[in-house]
Write a structure and sequence with these properties.
- The structure is a single chain.
- The chain has one domain.
- It is built from 14 helices and no strands.
- Helix 10 crosses helix 11 (236-260).
- The protein has 352 residues and is mainly alpha-helical.
- It is globular.
Length: 352
């Protein structure tokens, strides 16, 4: 490939640089160096995006696309475009923010969860890394293809998310159907992915969390850093997202009621991104209470009373998928999930 007259850099080297830029903002800066560079990068957008997704394989959808999560519209982004990379970057910033400080709801819930009480600091850090990864994986629609360790972290993400929700929104847990509501919350979390975590738990002022939208195939200075939007829970976008999730939660509760009455209808509706909405907890939702119970359920045995009344949604498939991926008996899935995650954060030598 020969150099353009306006480019001093060999095009092959330029494309390699484009593939390894750290973010879309850096890519824009590279494109703005000269017209030849701009033309080269825009003409190779698809291959550049494919390479970036391969470098970050846990973010990649087999379809090369994603659902936008700036607002509740959830627009399907054109596949293998810079818009997809920008969406992933925004999600990563949000996830980092949600797990950044010890006083954030998700971090507090980690400390209260039964399997993770009194962990050394280094093990907590490794656990947080696993949960961050799970926050991305909760936006994939291919649960059955995930390895056992990813499924185990997803199980704990849903459990910890449920605990954090119960702590942050105690008014929603005061009615007699609180357990059912918590099941629905976990189902919505696993259908909508990190967007749900962000809407429920974002800090009052979270810089760099939104997204500067870009048209398909167009990268220019107008993208900026992709850090607009955001804002606290009381902001306009947070309110729109929260209302959207309230409706989604109500829909899941309706599914549960229909199933409980013998309707047997679907429980799989409303998946998130194909990048979004993948596996999910099976009957562990009852563990998300403030008492810090683990993925294996609360002490009151509510799962035994109700698990067969739940629709076979995402939350009901996770343990079966884990059993298939790990080769362990489904009846021991909850114990095995705890053991696998603890083994991973302790160096991976204890789980045989």
């Amino acid at each position: 490939m020969s150099s353009s007259p306006s480019m001093l850099l060999n095009p092959d080297i330029a494309l390699l640089l484009a593939e390894h830029t750290t973010n879309v903002s850096s890519l824009c800066a590279l494109m703005q160096t000269c017209k030849g560079m701009h033309a080269l990068i825009t003409s190779h957008e698809r291959s550049i995006v494919k390479a970036k997704l391969q470098h970050q394989h846990h973010l990649a959808s087999p379809l090369g696309t994603a659902l936008s999560s700036v607002g509740p519209e959830r627009e399907v982004l054109p596949p293998y475009t810079f818009a997809v990379i920008q969406e992933h970057e925004m999600r990563a910033r949000r996830i980092d923010t949600l797990f950044r400080d010890d006083d954030e709801p998700l971090r507090r819930a980690i400390g209260a969860a039964r399997p993770f009480k009194a962990l050394p600091e280094g093990e907590v850090d490794r656990l947080v890394l696993g949960l961050k990864r799970a926050s991305h994986l909760a936006q994939l629609a291919f649960l059955h293809k995930l390895p056992a360790l990813d499924l185990a972290y997803l199980a704990h993400l849903a459990a910890i998310g449920g605990m954090a929700y119960a702590n942050v929104y105690p008014e929603n847990m005061a009615d007699p159907a609180a357990w059912e509501h918590l099941v629905a919350i976990k189902e919505v979390l696993l259908r909508q992915g990190s967007m749900a975590l962000w809407a429920w738990f974002q800090p009052a002022a979270a810089p760099g969390s939104g997204s500067g939208g870009i048209a398909a195939g167009v990268v220019a200075a107008v993208i900026g850093s992709g850090s607009g939007g955001g804002g606290g829970p009381g902001g306009k976008k947070a309110t729109a997202l929260t209302r959207f999730l309230d409706l989604a939660t109500a829909g899941v509760r309706d599914e549960i009621r229909v199933w409980d009455m013998g309707g047997g209808g679907g429980g799989q509706g409303g998946q998130g991104d194909e990048d979004d909405g993948d596996g999910s907890e099976d009957g562990e939702s009852e563990d998300g209470s403030e008492d810090g119970s683990s993925v294996d359920g609360s002490d009151d045995g509510s799962e035994n009373q109700s698990e067969h009344a739940l629709p076979p949604g995402l939350h009901m498939t996770l343990h079966e998928a884990f059993s298939l991926a790990s080769g362990r008996a489904k009846q021991r899935a909850r114990i095995e999930i705890d053991m696998l995650v603890l083994s991973d954060i302790r160096g991976g030598h204890e789980y045989e």
